[in-house]
Amino acid sequence: MNRITHCVYCGRPITTPSKEHIIHNALGGLYESTGICCPDCNELVGKLIDVPFTKTFNPIISQIDNFAKTNKGKSSPPCTGKAIHNGVIYDVGIKDGKVTSCPELSRKLKQNVKELDWAILSYDFRIDNDSFRSGMGKIAFNYALECGIPPEKLQHGMNVQIGGGSPSAISFTYPLLPFVALNPMDHYLELETETQLYHNLILFSQNRALWCYIDLFNTFQYYVLLSSNWDDEHLVYHSYLQLIQKLDRTVPKIRLRRHKYALIYADIYNVSPSTDEAVLEKRIAEAIQKESLKKDMPDFIASRLGVDYTLSLARTYHDAAQFELRRNSFMLYFDTDIEQDKFQLKTENFRQITFCDNSYKVTSYPWLLKALLESNAVDPKEYTHAKFERLNQFLLNGKEEKSAVSD
Prior knowledge:
Layout: E1 20-21, E2 32-33, H1 39-54, H2 58-63, E3 79-85, E4 88-95, E5 98-101, H3 103-109, E6 119-123, H4 130-146, E7 158-163, E8 166-172, E9 176-178, H5 184-191, E10 198-206, E11 209-216, E12 220-227, E13 237-243, H6 259-269, H7 277-290, E14 294-295, H8 297-303, H9 306-314, H10 320-333, E15 334-337, E16 342-345, E17 353-355, E18 362-364, H11 365-374, H12 380-395
Helix pairs in contact: 1-4, 6-7
């Protein structure tokens, strides 16, 4: 899709392909391009932007089981967080899920604290810094390029300093908006469903703007404004979603004691049914081996609904206003395919529009969010804290200790 022949940073022809990940390889990103920049600029970007940006995610990289990074190192990276010892909470250094340092307690006890009895409470995610903003901007920039957006349409947020005829510094300064769930459907999907770690990108044009919605690890969610002078006649929409953990490719041993079991297995693994156990097991094995971490976004988001949303909707039946709001929120994002008995995501609406008031009029999601944030009508900290809390509990393997999330 990308037809760039010259490096977007230095402008020289790309004579030697240089592999660049749309989402950083250190974060498990699988989407690669060789048509963005030359090897020298790729190395510079890696040093100036990628390394400091990916450090933010060290707690996830070091703790997630079966992390699907393509070039995984032998040791996990260090990170920081909070842990408790003898009823007191300390700031600590962490590696491989264990406390490795605690300057405060080391000074007090005058001993190595590694062997003490610790319980990790939370991991730190430092996002209020230029490295984080530049890294998110780079992801949006790369994805837009890979989706065919001309580099000259994106120049205002990409900054290159030239020294000695070559780039000496590169940064991205596109405006970032932290995502906040503004309707019950988003609140349900983000805070009430089972925690799943995935990366999601949505590039779309709307109201003379080009936006990229970025969701990393289903926790770090932002709108990136790539252009505020977009030609509305040039409609843009692209989406990408991938899982973070390696798939379990164990083939189940099936038993078809009843004919309906063949239909159930076929539906679960999306294969043609057969009443012959050997034939059906072979089809399932082939399907499991072909399954990719890259997912169709509409199908994946729809699969997160399940029966729980119907139950949550029923719980508000006694409150007519709440019931109507939740029902309309569902209809904003989903259609029901009665023939196939499943939900269908409205890709033209998801994360692009939401309700602007109780009359159920719809408006641009990012533009409304921008206005609410600027007027202090919405405080993103509560939502961000809730997302970090879910991530911390996931990383701590569901331990029941209350986490004190740092942001």
